[in-house]
Amino acid sequence: MTDPMSQGLDVAPISTDGAAPAGGHYSQGVRHGDLIYVSGQLPIAPDGTHHADADFDRQARLAIRNMIAVVEAAGGNAATLLKVTVYLVGVANWPRFNAIYAEMLGDARPARSVVPVPELHYGYLVEIDAIAVRAAAPHHGAGTSTPSNGWSP
How many CB atoms lie within 10 A of CB 55? Predict the structure, then answer.
């Protein structure tokens, strides 16, 4: 398999201790030029602890925090989100998710899709992925950083 960097492409995996570790053959995110692609983030703590038994609000907050941590690791922030896709178990959770999302993203209003699904891996109630743009070059190397927002699950 050819490494994109060896072909002169500006592609780099994103890895941060501030979000749940990748649980399979994928990266937490990938940066291409100034674009940031965030893999689906479940409500798993940055240390890998699962929280499938947590209430919906805690799950939603943790999934959003993971998404933002990956974006920040690549040099973006909530204001640089372009597109967010949310997978929710149960349409009934949509209004609550929207309230938490608005609280956590503040003035940021990226394009968004909400997709009701019958179930998610490990029994979680929410998963979120995103596309963002870098606000500035990462401070800690090629696409790797730890977020400075000091949050904890």
Answer: 10
Supply the pTM of this predicted model.
0.84
List, in order, residues 6 or more apart from 137 with CB less than 8 Å away: 75
Burial of 84 (0-12, 13-18, 19+ CB in 10 A): buried
Q: Residue 34: which of 54, 14, 48 has the closest Cα?
A: 14
CA distance 143 to 32: 10
What average pLDDT does the chain have? 88
3-state secondary structure 43-66: CECCCCCECCCCCHHHHHHHHHHH
Residue 27 makes CB contacts below 8 A (sequence gap 6+) with: 13, 14, 15, 39
What are the tens digits of pLDDT across the range 56-74?
A: 999 999 999 999 999 999 9
Tokens 């994103």 label which residue? 14
Rounded Cα distance between 66 and 27, Å, is 13
Residue 107, pLDDT score: 96
DSSP β-ladder status, 81-89 and 126-133: antiparallel
